[in-house]
C-alpha cells in the first residue's frame, strides 16, 4: 500500500498556491484606478480572473467535504462561468 500523500493534496500546494493568488488579486486591485482613468474596455478583467482562481482553489482544495464544500463548489463554478463569459465578451485588455 502506498501511504505517501499526493502533491495536490499536500499543505504546500493548498497554501502555497493561495499565497501566489492573493498577491495577484492585490495587484489587480492596485491597477484598477489606472484602468478606469484610461477608459479601458474591460478594467475588471484582472479582478474577475483573480477571484475565479481563488474561489476555485479554495472550493476544491481547501474545504473538507460537506454541505459547505458543496455550496462553495457551486458558487465557484457559477463564478467560473461568469468569469469566462466576461473575459470572452470583453477581452483581456484590462488584465495586462
Secondary-structure map:
Layout: H1 11-37, H2 45-62, H3 67-90
Task: Please explain how this structure is put together.
Helix 1 (11-37) runs antiparallel to helix 2 and helix 2 (45-62) runs antiparallel to helix 3. The chain contains three helices and no strands. Helix content is 72%, strand content 0%. The chain starts with 10 loop residues before the first helix and ends in a 6-residue tail after the last helix. It has one domain (17-90). It has helices at residues 11-37, 45-62, 67-90. The chain is mainly α. The model has no long low-confidence stretch (mean pLDDT 84).
Note the total helix count.
Answer: 3
Coarse shape = globular
The H/E string reads HHH
| Low confidence ranges | none
Structural class: mainly alpha
**Average pLDDT number:** 84
**Strand runs, count:** 0
Strand content is: under 5%
Secondary structure: helix percent? over 70%
Ends: how far apart? 47 Å
Largest sheet: none
How many discrete domains? 1
From the alpha carbons, calculate the radius of gyration and give it in angstroms. 16 Å
Amino acid at each position: 500500500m502506498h501511504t505517501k500523500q499526493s502533491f495536490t493534496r499536500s499543505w504546500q500546494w493548498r497554501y502555497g498556491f493561495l499565497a501566489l493568488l492573493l498577491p495577484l488579486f492585490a495587484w489587480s486591485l492596485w491597477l484598477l484606478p489606472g484602468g478606469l482613468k484610461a477608459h479601458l474596455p474591460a478594467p475588471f478583467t484582472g479582478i474577475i480572473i483573480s477571484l475565479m482562481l481563488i474561489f476555485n482553489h479554495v472550493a476544491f482544495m481547501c474545504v473538507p467535504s460537506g454541505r459547505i464544500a458543496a455550496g462553495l463548489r457551486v458558487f465557484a463554478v457559477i463564478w467560473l462561468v461568469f468569469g469566462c463569459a466576461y473575459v470572452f465578451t470583453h477581452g483581456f485588455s484590462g488584465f495586462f
